[in-house]
């Protein structure tokens, strides 16, 4: 009898050992998602690298790309990255209105980026440079379009979080969500570095 | 305004008491501004090289674009994504290294295989070219 009692008394020790951080595991899990997203972009970059010079007697990057527009687009994404950083700094201070303000600015820069990209796509399609025209253009629209789709979903996420923050304030859950979106948003900027280097700049150099 | 700020401080303290151990994810104003200035410079250089036609050699221009791009990716990782070897007990770095290896295999492998496929293709004669569909 006393034996059983001592056993049950020792039992809780098993459960007290572990020190669990739910927020930390969210960050790691989201990082793993970003790494898997990286693989999607890697396959699309590989496809573009292989097919990027198969013009099928159609237009080449030097004919199509307006580097001034791409430079403006890159600036938009860079500005949105630093304004998101400012939003995170305000979040850490616990300043709700300032966080919302910087998130709004980030959203506007993201929207400008998307607008310029859609204008570029529209312009190219009007010139007959559609995805069906050549392997180069199929690969181009898939790669740059996938990045644009990511930015679109990032913007939807951003607006959702702005509503969440304005309704519930900077609670722990919203801080965690803002942290995840921050990683996503900066990750998209990293992918864009690859896009403007490999697709636009190296395309125009030839 | 004062009541507001005290409530903010409370929230701040509550947050930090609750979630120790992921400070690695936060940056400071200085780190964000440093990262931003570096990225602006590292973006401007390749655009200037291409738009201004600065270098005579195409190979040199492409090499410069790739090297500066790689440096800029590292800058973003460090200053914006706050990567370091200690966050999450080193697991983010492990995942990153694994991903870089897979990405390198996918990119280099695709280019290598397709290059050999292209060079080993039968050379097309003008007659064959005419009969293409």
UniProtKB/TrEMBL annotation, chain A:
One GO CC term, this protein: plasma membrane
Keywords: Cell membrane, Electron transport, Membrane, Oxidoreductase, Transmembrane, Transmembrane helix, Transport
Statement: the UniProt record of this protein carries the keyword Glycoprotein: no
GO molecular function, one term: cytochrome bo3 ubiquinol oxidase activity
Pfam families in the record: COX3
PROSITE patterns, alphabetized: COX3
Membrane topology: Multi-pass membrane protein
Transmembrane spans: 30-50, 70-87, 99-119, 139-163, 184-205
UniProt keyword annotation of Transmembrane helix present: yes
InterPro entries named in the record: Cyt_c/ubiquinol_Oxase_su3 (IPR024791), Cyt_c_oxidase-like_su3 (IPR000298), Cyt_c_oxidase_su3-like_sf (IPR035973), Cyt_c_oxidase_su3_a-hlx (IPR013833), Cyt_c_ubiqinol_oxidase_su3 (IPR014206), Ubiquinol_oxase_su3_dom (IPR033946)
Chief location: membrane
Domain Heme-copper oxidase subunit III family profile stretches: 1-204
Biological process per Gene Ontology, one example term: aerobic electron transport chain
Top-level taxon in the UniProt lineage: Bacteria
Cellular compartment(s): Cell membrane
Subunit structure comment from the entry: Heterooctamer of two A chains, two B chains, two C chains and two D chains.
Family membership: Belongs to the cytochrome c oxidase subunit 3 family.
Protein task: Cytochrome bo(3) ubiquinol terminal oxidase is the component of the aerobic respiratory chain of E.coli that predominates when cells are grown at high aeration. Has proton pump activity across the membrane in addition to electron transfer, pumping 2 protons/electron.
Protein name: Cytochrome bo(3) ubiquinol oxidase subunit 3
Recorded name of the encoding gene: cyoC
UniProtKB/TrEMBL annotation, chain B:
Protein name: Cytochrome bo(3) ubiquinol oxidase subunit 4
GO biological process entries: aerobic electron transport chain; electron transport coupled proton transport
PANTHER family per the UniProt record, alphabetical: CYTOCHROME BO(3) UBIQUINOL OXIDASE SUBUNIT 4 (PTHR36835:SF1)
One Gene Ontology term of the molecular function aspect: cytochrome bo3 ubiquinol oxidase activity
Main location: membrane
Topology relative to the membrane: Multi-pass membrane protein
Transmembrane segment boundaries: 32-50, 62-81, 93-114
Keyword tags: Cell membrane, Electron transport, Membrane, Oxidoreductase, Transmembrane, Transmembrane helix, Transport
Function: Cytochrome bo(3) ubiquinol terminal oxidase is the component of the aerobic respiratory chain of E.coli that predominates when cells are grown at high aeration. Has proton pump activity across the membrane in addition to electron transfer, pumping 2 protons/electron.
GO CC field: cytochrome o ubiquinol oxidase complex; plasma membrane
Family, as annotated: Belongs to the cytochrome c oxidase bacterial subunit 4 family.
């Amino acid at each position: 009898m006393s034996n059983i009692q001592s056993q049950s008394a020792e039992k809780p020790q098993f459960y007290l050992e572990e020190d669990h951080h739910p927020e930390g595991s969210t960050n790691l899990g989201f990082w793993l998602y970003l790494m898997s997203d990286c693989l999607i972009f890697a396959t699309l970059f590989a496809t573009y690298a292989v097919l990027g010079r198969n013009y099928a007697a159609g237009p080449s990057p030097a004919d199509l790309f307006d580097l001034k527009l791409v430079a403006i687009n890159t600036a938009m994404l860079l500005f949105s990255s630093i304004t998101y950083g400012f939003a995170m700094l305000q979040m850490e201070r616990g300043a709700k209105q300032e966080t919302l303000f910087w998130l709004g600015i980030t959203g506007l820069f993201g929207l400008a980026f998307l607008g310029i990209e859609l204008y570029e796509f529209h312009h190219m399609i009007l010139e007959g440079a559609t995805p069906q025209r050549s392997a180069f253009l199929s690969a181009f629209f898939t790669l740059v379009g996938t990045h644009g789709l990511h930015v679109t979903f990032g913007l939807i996420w951003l607006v959702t979080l702005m509503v969440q923050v304005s309704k519930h304030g900077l609670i722990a859950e919203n801080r965690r969500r803002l942290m995840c979106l921050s990683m996503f948003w900066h990750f998209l900027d990293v992918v864009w570095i690859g896009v403007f280097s490999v697709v636009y700049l190296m395309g125009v150099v030839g | 305004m004062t009541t507001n700020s005290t409530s903010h401080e409370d929230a701040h303290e509550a947050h930090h008491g609750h979630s120790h151990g992921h400070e690695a994810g936060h940056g400071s104003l200085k780190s964000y501004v440093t990262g931003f200035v570096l990225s602006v410079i590292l973006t401007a250089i390749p655009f200037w090289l291409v738009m201004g036609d600065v270098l005579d050699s195409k190979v040199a221009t492409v090499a410069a674009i790739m090297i500066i791009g790689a440096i800029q990716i590292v800058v973003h990782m460090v200053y914006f994504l706050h990567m370091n070897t200690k966050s999450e007990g080193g697991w983010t770095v492990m995942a990153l290294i694994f991903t870089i290896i897979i990405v390198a295999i996918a990119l280099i492998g695709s280019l290598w295989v397709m290059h050999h496929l292209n060079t080993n293709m039968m050379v097309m004669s003008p007659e064959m070219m005419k009969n293409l569909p």
